[in-house]
Amino acid sequence: MGGLRQYAIPFRGLKEGKHDFEFIADHSFFEHFDSSEVNKGLVKVHIEMIKHTQFLELHFELAGKVTVQCDRCLEPFVLGIDHQAMLYIRFGEKSYEQSEEVLVLSDSASEVKLEQYIYEYIHLALPYQRIHPEIDGHSGCDHEMIKKLDDHSASDESDSEDPRWDKLRGLIKETE
Ligand SMILES: [Zn+2]
Q1: CB within 10 Å: which end of the chain, N or C, has fewer?
Q2: Do residue 58 and residue 104 come from a single domain?
Q3: Ligand 1 center from residue 44 Cα (angstroms)
Q4: Residue 1: what pLDDT?
Q5: Is residue 6 part of a domain?
Q6: Can you give the pLDDT at residue 2?
Q7: Could you tell me if 41 and 94 lie in one domain?
Q8: What is the number of structural domains in the chain?
Q9: Ligand 1 centroid distance, CA of 31 (Å)
């Protein structure tokens, strides 16, 4: 995890009160996560941290663009994202995730690593259904690809085990 050390906030030496941090999640960030549904992107992550006597309060604001795979034609396309999240950090004997919004850090910790949170927030910002936006009222999908996928699913039923094909067939029916 050494490569992502930059996505951490060293909070020990900071005064109580408000502090701002900015991180950029780019290609190398997404590359670091094997199961990422985003393989390329540029997301600006602004964090306003309020240091209280007993705990830390982090407000995340994420904005940028990511490349995801279209659910319909399976070709990549660029999606704009905009997401906000809150994280509270309190201290205890050992580090653990108490809930989605509360992280407990060991008393000896001097920094908080945020790459996993940034990764999750970016994925939370993705819409459930990811489909090419329309261009002038027409599907922005790769028509050649749709046709190929359609032929493929019609001629080779063994692929129906892959849930993506079922989903795809459903979508093609809906739009016709
Ligand atoms: Zn598409």
Answers
A1: C
A2: yes
A3: 25
A4: 43
A5: yes
A6: 47
A7: yes
A8: 2
A9: 23
CA of 75 to the centre of ligand 1 (A): 6
3-state secondary structure of 5: coil
Give 18: exposed, middle or buried? Use CB within 10 Å, 0-12, 13-18, 19+.
exposed
Residues 23 and 98 in one domain: yes
Q: Which residue has the tokens 């201290």?
A: 91
Q: How far is the CA of 122 from the centre of ligand 1 (A)?
A: 21
- State whether 98 and 21 are in the same domain: yes
Q: Supply the range of the domain harboring residue 148.
A: 143-175
133 within a domain of the structure (yes/no): no
Spatial distance between the Cα atoms of 16 and 18, rounded to a whole number of angstroms: 7
CA of 166 to the centre of ligand 1 (A): 16
pLDDT of residue 165: 65
Taking the centre of ligand 1 as the mean of its atom positions, its distance from the CA of residue 17, in whole angstroms, is 46
| pLDDT of the residue at 6 | 87
Residue 17: HSE in the Cβ half-sphere, 13 Å Cα cutoff:
2
Q: What is the mean pLDDT of each run of 10 residues along the chain (176 residues)?
A: 74 95 94 89 98 96 96 94 97 94 95 95 94 91 89 64 64 57
Amino acid of residue 78: V
Same domain? 32 vs 87: yes
Distance 4 CA to ligand 1 centre (A): 32
* Whole-number pLDDT of residue 77: 95
CA of 29 to the centre of ligand 1 (A): 25
Tell me: do 65 and 94 sit in the same domain: yes
Q: Are the beta carbons of 96 and 68 closer than 8 angstroms?
A: no
Q: Is 34 inside any structural domain?
A: yes
* CA 131–ligand 1 middle distance (angstroms): 5
